[in-house]
């Protein structure tokens, strides 16, 4: 699940570029040039390239933080009403990365 969200987040700059290209009303190289210049504002095309790079970094960070925060919140609430052992076993079955499983288990105090 977390890998799917990260993959989608990596594609966000491309989606933004395509939308900006469509908004120009141009086609081909002229659309790319105009879209990058529009995104870059006073910095022009180079600024547009930088904006897309920053958007990629921010979206990846938000995707990572969002998944971690969501899982932590869910399991901390469930810990109030369910046994810790059950939740620890359930975490092993989640379709998330190994590092996220370890982080979640550490926060919940799993062995």
Q: What is the general shape?
A: rod-shaped
Provide the number of structural domains: 1
Number of strands: 0
Distance linking N and C termini = 24 Å
Low-confidence stretches: none
- How much of the polypeptide forms β-strand, as a percent range? under 5%
Number of helices: 6
Most strands sheet: none
Give average pLDDT, whole number: 90
Give the helix/strand class.
mainly alpha
Helix content: over 70%
Compute the CA-based radius of gyration: 20 Å
Order of helices and strands: HHHHHH
What secondary-structure arrangement, pairings included, does this model have?
Blueprint: H1 2-10, H2 12-24, H3 28-40, H4 44-79, H5 84-93, H6 98-108
Features:
single chain; 111 residues; 83% helix
Note down, in words, how this protein is organized.
The protein is an all-alpha fold. It has one domain (2-108). The chain contains six helices and no strands. Helix 2 crosses helix 4 (44-79) and helix 5 packs antiparallel against helix 6 (98-108). The longest helix has 36 residues, at 44-79.
Short description:
This protein has 111 residues and is mostly helical. It is built from six helices and no strands.
């Amino acid at each position: 699940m977390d890998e799917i969200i990260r993959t989608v987040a990596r594609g966000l700059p491309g989606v933004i570029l395509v939308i900006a290209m469509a908004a120009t009303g141009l086609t081909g190289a002229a659309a790319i040039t105009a879209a990058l210049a529009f995104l870059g504002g006073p910095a022009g095309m180079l600024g547009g390239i930088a904006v897309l790079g920053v958007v990629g970094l921010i979206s990846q960070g938000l995707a990572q933080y969002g998944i971690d925060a969501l899982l932590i919140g869910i399991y901390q609430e469930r810990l109030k009403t369910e046994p810790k052992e059950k939740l620890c076993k359930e975490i092993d079955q989640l379709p998330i990365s190994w590092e996220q499983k370890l982080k979640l288990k550490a926060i919940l105090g799993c062995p």
